Amino acid sequence: MAYVERQVYYFEQPGPSNTADAARFAVERAQSLGVGTVVVASSSGRTALQFLEVMMDAGLELVVVTHAVGFRAPGEWEFDPAAARTLREAGATIVTGTHVLSGLERAFSASAKVGGGSRSEAVAEALRRVVAVGLKVAVECVMIAADQGAVPIDREVVACGGTGSGADTVVVVRPAHTNRFFDCQVRELVAMPRNR
Predict the structure, then answer these.
(1) Whole domain around residue 83: which residue ranges?
(2) What is the domain count for the chain?
(3) Rounded to two decimals, what is the model's pTM?
């Protein structure tokens, strides 16, 4: 019987205090697997800058996935322009996209006139509740990045998401485009919070 033994890290609590460790674990796993890309969710740029600092001389590509313009307020992009400049100057790719697992569906489920949930929101909620909020975020960010052509779909990436802010979940994923959701594979769990 063939198997692979790998280290998995568990944070006692979710949240941004885990970001530096999550970045370190992401770099370690990417290097040990020969994976060239780390994908990280960052709505303001703070988490992305922490990852950039840890990844500085690691020889890895950083892909940052942000909220769509208008996510919090109409016409506004939450990402700090100075952080975006710093990241781009360092060679990072920034992808701004609509949430794959909610997007238009959220407008219907939040509407008093229409109401009800959707299948994509059910998938999102299952990932959030059964495993970790950060898993939902990481998977979603990989698909957003794949849809924008920022990550290849034929090579694994290390993906990182968080609970609220920061990063507390790290996984190895084989990407897929949104319209091929069931081709997306979480292949390794690297780190996650135990209590959610």
Answers:
(1) 9-185
(2) 1
(3) 0.90
Helix spans in the chain (H): 19-33, 46-55, 81-89, 104-110, 119-126, 133-147
**Among 41, 17, 20, 38, which Cα is nearest to 29's?**
38
3 domain-assigned: no
**pLDDT, tens digit (0-9, with 9 covering 90-100), for 86-123:** 999 999 999 998 877 766 565 556 555 555 667 777 77
**Has residue 36 been placed in a domain?**
yes
Q: What is the CATH number of the domain that holds 45?
A: 3.40.1380.20
Position 127 scores a pLDDT of 73
Query: For residue 74, how many other CB atoms are within 10 A of its CB?
Result: 7
Q: Tell me which H or E stretch contains 64.
A: strand 61-66
CA distances to 21, 29, 45 from 54, rounded to whole Å, are 9, 13, 14
Q: Do 132 and 167 meet the contact criterion of CB atoms below 8 Å apart?
A: no
pLDDT in tens, 118-170: 777 777 777 777 788 889 999 999 999 999 999 999 999 999 999 989 999 99
Joined together, the tokens standing for residue 154 give: 């034929």
Q: Is residue 152 part of a domain?
A: yes
Determine the 3-state secondary structure of 165 from DSSP. Answer: strand
pLDDT of 22 strictly over 70: yes
CB-CB contact of 65 with 40 (8 Å): yes
